[in-house]
């Protein structure tokens, strides 16, 4: 196991090193699909330059990173490439713990508890199958072209992904304190990981055998504890940022920017085209609608998946990276890395061929239609947005397909693999 | 091409050239500057130099140096925000000796008019496309092709449209319009309509692809004639090179066309004054534009100057071809998923695991792409070594190396199956074919969006054979068919068809020499102007084809 992982690491580092030194690096760091105004390296350098001159980096509406990020890069700007290569490594560490701690343990409990019908044995995964999952998760993240592009462009999305990965790692290890602190850090970086509070809470409750019952005092006790850790860390981090730069400038520049979407550079998200066409009168209303869209799915998903918090984390990350205001391919790569952990759902997936074709075709068509729009002048923004819509449609279909497959497997585990209707004929499951 | 095959002759000529240190063809720079200045233009020059990757037949040397001369006619009462360009390439000999004269005459006439709202730039460039590229790069402050040029001293605002003149005699019988630009990009159809309208108005005979229009659309001959004209446009667009100096303007979103005067054997001849009036009319129309030309189609095919086929008509044809690949991929997917479904029915057979299959698919893919990279990089880099060991000139060395690598690739994947320990299962080739079909579909789709003709020609030759290939077919017959439909042979067929269509059919040996020169021109175009045909074919289409070749020889 160690040898393939080491080989994988060597291959990944080599690819990134080769691309860093080639002329492609500059080309990639300007692609709008890979960098956004929030996490472009050019803007980090601009902010550092402003900081060195003694001016607030947030003046001029160029820099939208948090103060922690600017101070981190203040010290390691000469080693930036190494920093960006290390951050996928953290995700790779996560993959090991994901299997060893969580999945193995769950399988063990399942086999021991003997509560599944006999014909469902083939639905449960054997340890031999699960042995390769860390390698596959690592491979899916490190060798994913999206991650490589994001890393070579030196987009800080890679660091955000690393923080989220660390948060998931600490959650799975069971340390509520660290998990709360890291979640606060992830929320501080970009607000959307706020929605990961619910699945993390559900995981801890499940781990400590506290039933999710609103009338039980133990539930409220733990929730308040965790919320206190989270909110407290967030307050401390925000306060520290204030002291770092001496002003509250960063709040409108970072969080105001994420929420109010003033920059309409095309990207792979859904916001830019709408807001380019919109009248000012309706702008606030639609901003609210679009932003609520990200946060809203937490509630029904948490209710449905309250016994499966790890899958809920995956769904939440996917929803964040589809509906956030400035998505990039680095965000997409994060949730795609977790797909091998659910390879046992493969047999229940219905649309995987269509989804793969759509995602592959759209990834190839993004640069073509950008060229036709901006350089050749033969197309216009509608063409590019069409590909964006198709790409997001493919992602949504992928996520909902996995959701269906997960629920179907759970249904089979409780009701048997071969479902029969009341008159004995074979039944099919429908997701309503 | 055989002129400089003798190495001793080549050495003598190279020595002579380096001693002279001047280009063979001289452009009368001082005279042009004086002539333009006396007509009241602001005259500037730009010198440029470019090192060719290998000397081609026309230039016969590595370093090309030249000077562009351009004069700006400032609009008398307008802000200097927009400009029009009229360019006449200055080539050695008789190929374009009248165009510069016409240009200067136009400049003198335009200078006396007061209705100009845009600045007009009269550009005389040396070395055709290389000079135009240097001027455009200097004008737009870009450097995409590695050209060295002196910065432009005078500038005139954003260029809205450009016209290129090619006249080799002072009386002409017809004017030919050339629209195809680099990478198959076309100007807005409005420009072609403008040219046609003015030709009609002044009674000048106009042609496209060198063919006159016919009025009998209903007859078979009329239809064939129109189809031939369209086929010529498709072939010219597919080869991705710029067929006139205007082609390089299109990349900067400047609508441009080339007007070529042809003097053939007809009674009715048009003199230079009428051509001047035509050009004046066109330039005045362009002068009146309030915005860039964008109302008409950018993607079209012209069977004649008064008829066009828009993208809405020809893209479904390509779409149907691409759908074949997708349907075949879907079919393979269903078959690959079927054994898994069979195992669900209770009897637990030994399922074919799909994860080791990834490695069997990965090896042919990697090897094919490495061969493609070799085909892209090695011919130019190894030319010196080839010239040392074989009695060929550099151009021949490059082309023959390319052909050698192409043929060697046929032998290579045949054996990789034996290297992997017996993974030649049913599952293996199906997974590889699925990947290759999807890859080819995405590739052809992207190509057709940028250069429809190239995508269509590749689709017509590649889709039938790749969709139907399996390892269980008679290998000799299908191997022959695959080779005959491979990209290199497609280029060969296109050369022969092109020669047939321009009514200058060639024999097999001449066709072969033309084919070699087409390959060398393709490589040169890619190095000099950034044409995408050669890298597309070498780095993507050829490896894709090799993957299918691998499938044929799977067992």
Automatic annotation (TrEMBL), chain A:
Keyword RNA-binding applies: no
Annotated membrane topology: Multi-pass membrane protein
Any matching Pfam family: PIG-U
A biological process from GO: attachment of GPI anchor to protein
Annotated signal sequence range: 1-25
Subcellular location: Endoplasmic reticulum membrane
Keywords (A to Z) from UniProt: Endoplasmic reticulum, GPI-anchor biosynthesis, Membrane, Signal, Transmembrane, Transmembrane helix
Pathway info: Glycolipid biosynthesis; glycosylphosphatidylinositol-anchor biosynthesis
Top-level taxonomic group: Eukaryota
GO cellular component: GPI-anchor transamidase complex
Keyword Transferase attached: no
Segments passing through the bilayer: 163-185, 191-210, 222-248, 254-275, 282-299, 311-339, 351-376, 382-404
Family the UniProt entry places it in: Belongs to the PIGU family.
Protein known as: Phosphatidylinositol glycan anchor biosynthesis class U protein-like
Organism: Cyprinus carpio (Common carp)
From TrEMBL, chain B:
GO CC annotation: GPI-anchor transamidase complex
UniProt name for this protein: GPI-anchor transamidase component GPAA1
Keyword NADP attached: no
Taxon lineage: Eukaryota, Metazoa, Chordata, Craniata, Vertebrata
Membrane topology term: Multi-pass membrane protein
Organism field: Cyprinus carpio
Keywords carried by this UniProt record: Disulfide bond, Endoplasmic reticulum, Glycoprotein, GPI-anchor biosynthesis, Membrane, Transmembrane, Transmembrane helix
Cellular localization per UniProt: Endoplasmic reticulum membrane
Quaternary organization: Heteropentamer. Part of the GPI-anchor transamidase complex, consisting of PIGK, PIGT, PIGS, PIGU and GAA1. Interacts with PIGK.
Bilayer-spanning residue ranges: 311-330, 436-465, 477-499, 511-529, 536-554
């Amino acid at each position: 196991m160690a040898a393939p992982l080491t080989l994988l690491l060597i291959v990944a580092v080599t690819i990134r090193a080769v691309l860093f030194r080639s002329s492609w690096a500059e080309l990639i760091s300007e692609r709008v699909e890979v960098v956004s105004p929030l996490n472009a390296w050019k803007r980090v350098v601009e902010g550092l330059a402003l900081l060195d001159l003694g001016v607030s980096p947030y003046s001029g509406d160029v820099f939208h990173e948090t103060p922690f990020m600017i101070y981190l890069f203040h010290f390691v700007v000469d080693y930036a490439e190494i920093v960006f290569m290390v951050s996928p490594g953290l995700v790779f560490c996560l993959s090991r713990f994901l299997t060893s701690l969580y999945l193995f343990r769950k399988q063990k409990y399942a086999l021991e508890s003997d509560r599944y019908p006999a014909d469902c044995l083939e639905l449960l995964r054997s340890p031999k199958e699960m042995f390769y999952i860390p390698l596959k998760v690592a491979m899916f993240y490190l060798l994913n072209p999206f991650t490589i592009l994001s890393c070579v462009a030196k987009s800080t999305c890679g660091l955000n992904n690393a923080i989220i990965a660390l948060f998931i790692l600490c959650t799975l290890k069971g340390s509520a304190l660290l998990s709360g602190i890291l979640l606060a850090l992830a929320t501080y970086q970009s607000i959307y990981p706020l929605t990961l509070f619910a699945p993390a809470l559900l995981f801890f409750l499940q781990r400590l055998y506290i039933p999710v019952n609103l009338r039980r005092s133990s539930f409220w006790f733990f929730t308040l504890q965790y919320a206190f850790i989270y909110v407290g860390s967030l307050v401390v981090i925000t306060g520290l940022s204030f002291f770092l730069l001496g002003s509250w400038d960063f709040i409108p520049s970072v969080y105001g920017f994420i929420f109010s979407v003033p920059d309409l550079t095309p990207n792979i998200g859904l916001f830019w085209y709408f807001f380019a066409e919109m009248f000012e009168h309706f702008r606030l209303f639609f901003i609210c609608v679009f932003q609520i869209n990200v946060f809203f799915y937490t509630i029904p998903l948490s209710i449905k998946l309250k016994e499966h918090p790890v899958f809920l984390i995956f769904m939440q990350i996917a929803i964040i990276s589809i509906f956030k205001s400035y998505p990039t391919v680095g965000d997409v790569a994060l949730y795609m890395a977790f797909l091998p952990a659910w390879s046992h759902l493969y047999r229940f997936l219905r649309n995987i061929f269509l989804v793969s074709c759509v995602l592959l075709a759209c990834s190839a068509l993004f640069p073509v239609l950008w060229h036709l729009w901006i350089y050749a002048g033969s197309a216009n923004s509608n063409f590019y947005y069409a590909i964006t819509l198709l790409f997001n449609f493919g992602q949504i279909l992928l996520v909902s397909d996995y959701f269906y497959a997960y629920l179907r497997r759970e249904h089979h585990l409780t009701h048997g693999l071969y479902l029969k209707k009341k008159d004995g004929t074979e039944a099919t499951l429908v997701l309503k | 091409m055989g002129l400089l095959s003798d190495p001793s002759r080549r050495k003598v000529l190279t020595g002579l050239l380096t001693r002279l240190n001047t280009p063979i063809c001289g452009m009368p720079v001082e005279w042009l500057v004086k002539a333009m200045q006396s007509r009241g233009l602001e005259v500037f020059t730009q010198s440029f130099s470019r090192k060719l990757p290998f000397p081609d037949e026309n230039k016969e040397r590595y370093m090309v140096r030249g000077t562009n001369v351009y004069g700006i006619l400032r609009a008398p009462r307008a802000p200097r925000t927009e400009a029009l360009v009229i360019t006449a390439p200055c080539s050695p000999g008789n190929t374009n000796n009248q165009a510069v004269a016409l240009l200067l005459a136009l400049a003198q006439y335009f200078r006396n008019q007061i209705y100009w709202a845009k600045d007009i730039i009269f550009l005389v460039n040396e070395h055709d496309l290389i000079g135009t590229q240097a001027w455009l790069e200097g004008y737009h402050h870009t450097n995409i092709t590695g050209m060295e040029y002196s910065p432009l001293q005078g500038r005139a605002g954003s260029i809205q449209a450009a016209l290129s003149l090619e006249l080799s005699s002072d009386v002409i019988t017809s004017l030919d319009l050339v629209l195809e630009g680099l990478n198959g990009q076309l100007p807005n159809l409005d420009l072609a309509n403008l040219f046609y309208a003015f030709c009609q108005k002044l009674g000048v005979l106009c042609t496209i692809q060198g063919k006159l229009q016919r009025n009998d659309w209903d007859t078979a001959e009329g239809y064939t004639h129109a189809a031939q004209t369209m086929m010529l446009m498709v072939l010219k667009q597919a080869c991705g090179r710029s067929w006139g100096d205007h082609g390089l303007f299109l990349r900067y979103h400047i609508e441009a066309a080339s007007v070529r005067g042809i003097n053939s054997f007809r009674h009715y001849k048009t003199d230079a004054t009428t051509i001047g009036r035509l050009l004046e009319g066109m330039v005045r129309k362009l002068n009146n534009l309030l915005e860039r030309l964008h109302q008409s189609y950018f993607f079209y095919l012209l069977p004649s100057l008064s008829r066009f086929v828009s993208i809405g008509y020809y893209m479904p044809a390509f779409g149907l071809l691409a759908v074949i690949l997708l349907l075949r991929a879907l079919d393979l997917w269903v078959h690959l998923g079927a054994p898994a479904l069979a195992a669900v029915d209770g009897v637990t057979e030994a399922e074919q695991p799909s994860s080791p299959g990834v490695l069997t698919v990965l090896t042919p893919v990697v090897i094919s792409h490495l061969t493609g990279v070799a085909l892209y990089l090695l011919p130019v880099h190894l030319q010196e070594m080839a010239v040392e060991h074989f009695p060929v000139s550099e151009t021949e060395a490059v082309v023959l190396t390319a052909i050698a690598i192409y043929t060697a690739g046929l032998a290579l994947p045949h054996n990789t199956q034996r290297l992997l320990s017996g993974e030649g299962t049913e599952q293996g080739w199906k997974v590889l074919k699925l990947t290759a079909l999807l890859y080819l579909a995405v590739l052809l789709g992207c190509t057709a969006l940028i250069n429809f003709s190239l995508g269509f020609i590749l689709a017509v030759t590649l889709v039938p054979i790749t969709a139907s290939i399996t390892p269980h077919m008679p290998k000799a017959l299908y191997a022959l068919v695959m080779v005959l439909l491979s990209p290199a042979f497609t280029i060969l067929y296109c050369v022969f068809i092109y020669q047939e269509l321009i009514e200058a059919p060639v024999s097999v040996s001449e066709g072969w020499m033309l084919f070699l020169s087409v390959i060398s021109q393709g490589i040169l175009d890619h190095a000099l102007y950034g044409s995408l045909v050669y890298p597309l074919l070498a780095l993507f289409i050829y490896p894709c084809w090799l993957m299918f070749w691998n499938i044929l020889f799977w067992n």
